[in-house]
Amino acid sequence: MGIPFAPSPPGRVTRWVRRNLFRTPFDGVVTVVGGALALYVVYRLVRFVLVTGRWDVVRDNLKLFMVGRYPTVHLPRVSVSVIVAALAAGLVAGIVHRRQLAAGTSTVAHLSPAARVLDLVQRFWPVLLGAVLVLALTTTPGPTLTAVGALIAAVLGRVVGARLPKRSHWVVVLAAVATPFVLVGYLADALGWDGWGGMMLNIFLAVVSIILCFPLGVFMALGRRSHLPLIRWLCTGLIEVVRGAPLFVLLLMANVALGFFVPREWAPSDVMRAITVFTIFTGAYVAEIVRGGLQSLPRGQEEAGRALGLSPARVTFLIVLPQALRNVIPAQVGQFISLFKDTVLVGAAMGLFEVLRVATAVTTQGEFQGQNLLPETFGFVALLFWVGSYTMSQESQRIEHKLGVGER
Questions:
Q1: CA–CA distance from 147 to each of 85, 125, 141, 154, 388 (Å)?
Q2: By percentage, how much of the chain surpasses pLDDT 70?
C-alpha cells in the first residue's frame, strides 16, 4: 500500500487571505460584499473618466482653471517663474544630498542612477500623473514646454547643487528661500494680486500663509508658556479667540467689517486680507500643536541644558524646540494640508476668482449652460487638490521616517 501524498502547505498569499479576509463566515461575507462594491465604484469611476465624462468644459477653460484671468500676453512670466522655482528646488535638493553624504545619512547614495530616478518617480508619482493629465488637456505647446523646462532645470539644479563649494551653501539656500517672494513680485508686476485667479491663486495663498503662520505659531506657543503674565495672557487670549471662531466667518469679517474700522484708502487688498486671516487662524492651531510637542518632552531636557550653563533662550531654541517640532511633524503637516484646502473659501467669502469658483462659473458659459457639467469641473478641481495634499502627506511621512518620529 503506497504512502499518501501530504498536502502542500498553503503559500504566503493564501495564508494572508485566510487570516485577514476569510477568517470567519461573517468576514467572508463582508469581504465579498465590500469587494463587489469597490469594483463597482472603480468601474463607474473609470467609465466616467474615459467614456461618459465630457471634458471639453475643462479643456476649453484650462487657462481659467490654472491661472484665472491672468493676461495671456504675460503667460511667459508664469513659465519663467515655474522654471526658476524648479531650479531653486533642485539646487537645495543637491545641497541637502551632499550634506547627507558627508554625514553618512543618505538613503540613496548606494543606488544606481536608474534606481534614483525610480525612487523620485515613486515619491512624486501623483505630481507626475497630475501633470500628464493636465498636459493631455492642453491645446497649445506652451504648458508642455514649461513642464519640460522645469524638469530640465530641476535636474540641472540637483547636479550643480551637489557640486557647489561648501562655503557657498548658505548663500544658495538663502537665495532659494527668497526666490518665491521675488517671483511673486515678478508675476504681480503684470497684474495685481486681486486680479489673480485659478489654482495659481490657491497655491499662492497656501504657500505664503504657511511660510508666515509657522513662525507665528511657534512664538505664540512659546508665549503661552512664558513666565511673564502679560505675554502669556495675550497669547492665550489670541489663540482661544481665533480657534473659537469659524474660518469662513473670519474671512467674511475681513471682507466686510474691516471697512467700518479702516478707511478705504488705507485698507489692504482682498488677497492681503485673506493671507492675514489664514496666517492668524492657522498660526493659532500651529501654536497648540507646538505646545503639545513642548509638553511631550521630559523636563530633564531643559534641566540638562541649564546644568551645562546654557541661557534659557539657547536651551529653548537649541534643545527643547527642535525635539518638540520633530515630534509634531504629522500634526503640523496635517494642518498645512487643511490650510491648502481651505483656500477655496475665499471665493464665497471674499469674491476672489479661485479655482472652485472657476469650476462653477465655466458651467454657465453659453456652450456649456444647462448640461450638468459640475461633476467634470469639480472632479478636475478635486484631482488638483488631491495631488497637492497627497504629495505633502507622503513627503511628511518620508521626513518622519528619516528622523525616526515615533521610534525609541
A1: 12, 15, 10, 11, 17
A2: 94
CA distance 85 to 352: 25
Q: Which residues of 76-90 are buried (b: 16+ CB within 10 A; e: fewer)?
A: ebbbebbbbbbbbbb
| CA quadruple 343, 344, 350, 352: dihedral, nearest 10 | 100
Residue 126 CA to residue 86 CA, distance in Å, equals 17
Q: Which residues contact 108 (CB under 8 A, 6 or more apart)?
A: 97, 115, 116, 119
Give tens-digit pLDDT for 27-79.
889 999 999 999 999 999 999 988 888 999 999 999 999 999 888 898 999 99
Contact between 67 and 200 (Cβ < 8 Å) = yes
Residue among 384, 336, 380, 332 at smallest CA distance from 360: 380
**Angstrom distance (rounded) from CA 149 to CA 155:** 10
Q: Considering just the CA atoms, what is the radius of gyration of the chain in Å?
A: 26
Distance, in Å, from the CA atom of 271 to the CA atom of 251, rounded to the nearest integer, reads: 11
> DSSP readout, 240-253?
HHHHTS-HHHHHHH
Under the phi-then-psi rule, with left for phi > 0, alpha for psi from -120 to 50, and beta for the rest, what region is 351? Answer: left
pLDDT band at 338 (very low <50, low <70, confident <90, very high): very high
CA atoms within 13 A on the CB side of 147: 16
Question: How far is C-alpha 338 from the geometric centre of its chain's CA atoms?
Answer: 9
pTM score, two decimals?
A: 0.87
Encode pLDDT of 241-252 as tens digits: 999 999 999 999
* Residue pair 80/146 in contact by the 8 Å Cβ criterion: no
* Rounded-to-integer distance, Cα 145 and Cα 149, Å: 6
The SS3 of residue 87 is: helix
Percentages helix, strand, coil for the chain (3-state, rounded to 5) are 80, 0, 20
* Cβ–Cβ < 8 Å for 319, 285: no
Task: Judge contact between 293 and 223, C-beta under 8 A.
Answer: no
SS3 assignment, position 222: helix
Burial (Cβ within 10 Å: 0-12, 13-18, ≥19) of residue 387: buried
